[in-house]
Sequence to fold (141 residues):
Amino acid sequence: MEGLHAEAALRYKLKLPTGKETVVVEGLRFCYDLSETDAMILFELLKGGEYSVDDLTQILKLSKATVNRSLSKLVEIGFVSRTREKKAGVGRPRYKYYIDDPEAVLLRIIQDFENCSRAFSEALRDILKMIKSHQEKRKTE
Fold:
């Protein structure tokens, strides 16, 4: 991920079986309800290292409120971890955000995408069974 910019990862194009082109961020939006900003921060953190809110604000040219909101969501999902900064003083605690194992996070996303696909396939099979059952009932009436 070192040479990969977060923006490039978000815009990585793929072609669906229907021929429609889409981008990775759309899958993240669908499966996790991640915004483009959430995904951009996720891909930045996947590069490795620890980042403060100020670091991400500066790198990604986003407001602190936006970065905080996205980080909270990413921590809640379990993609991102945080550790309290070791600073003396009073006031609000400050945190550093990081991803312990970037490969594990990407493998989890891959697995979740596969599970989403499987869930849709099973739902459509159930619908097909209902249609066939309905057709059989109509034939016997």
Remarks:
- The chain has a mean pLDDT of 90.
- The first helix runs from residue 6 to 10.
- Residues 106 and 124 are 27 Å apart (CA to CA).
- The domain at 6-100 is CATH 1.10.10.10 (Arc Repressor Mutant, subunit A).
